[in-house]
Design brief:
Helices cover 0% and strands 51% of the residues. By secondary structure, the chain is mainly β. It has a domain at 35-120: Immunoglobulins (Immunoglobulin-like, Sandwich), CATH 2.60.40.10. Strands 6, 8, 9, 11, 12 and 13 form a six-stranded mixed β-sheet that branches. The chain has a three-stranded antiparallel β-sheet with strand order 5-7-10, with no helix packed on it. Strands 1-4 form a two-stranded antiparallel sheet. A hairpin with a 2-residue loop joins strand 8 and strand 9 (76-81). The radius of gyration is 24 Å and the shape is elongated. The termini are far apart. It comes from Rhodinocichla rosea. Residues 46-118 form the Ig-like domain. InterPro entries: Ig-like_dom, Ig-like_dom_sf, Ig-like_fold, Ig_sub.
Length: 131
C-alpha cells in the first residue's frame, strides 16, 4: 500500500436476492520511517583481492516505498550507483576506503553506517608454491 491508498472502501457481492454492498470502512495508510538500514559485502567483511569483484548490498528492514538508493565513497564526490546493490568489477588499489548508501522514500532520507573495504595486495600465483 502507499499513502494515496487511504480513503473509504466497501465491497459488494451477489447474494441470493441480488447485489449487496457493505458498509463503508475508512482505511488510513500511515508512513513508516526508514528503519534498519544495513550494508553487506561479498566477499564478506569487505576484504577483496586486487582485480577481483566486490558486491555491496544495501538493505532496508522497514520503510514506505518506493525507495531510492544512492552509493557513496569517502574519496569521491560523485554518485557511484543508484540501486540496492553496487558491483565493482576488477577493484584497484584506489578502491579501498569507506562506502555507504543513502536511501530515500520521498519524504525521509537515511544513511547507512559506513562499510570499510580493503583491497588486498596483488595475487601471486607462485606464492607458496613448491619450487
Amino acid at each position: 500500500l502507499q499513502l494515496h491508498h487511504s480513503g473509504h472502501c466497501c465491497c459488494e457481492g451477489w447474494v441470493v436476492s441480488g447485489w449487496k454492498e457493505s458498509e463503508l470502512v475508512t482505511v488510513t495508510v500511515h508512513r513508516v520511517t526508514l528503519l534498519g538500514l544495513s550494508l553487506s559485502a561479498q566477499p564478506p567483511g569487505g576484504q577483496v583481492a586486487l582485480r577481483d569483484r566486490l558486491v555491496l548490498s544495501c538493505e532496508v528492514a522497514m520503510g514506505t516505498g518506493p525507495l531510492s538508493f544512492s552509493w557513496h565513497w569517502e574519496g569521491l564526490g560523485t554518485l557511484l550507483g543508484t540501486g540496492p546493490r553496487l558491483e565493482l568489477r576488477h577493484v584497484g588499489d584506489n578502491d579501498s576506503g569507506q562506502y555507504w548508501c543513502r536511501v530515500s522514500d520521498r519524504d525521509s532520507v537515511a544513511k547507512s553506517d559506513p562499510l570499510n573495504v580493503t583491497v588486498l595486495g596483488e595475487w601471486d600465483p607462485w606464492a607458496g608454491a613448491d619450487p
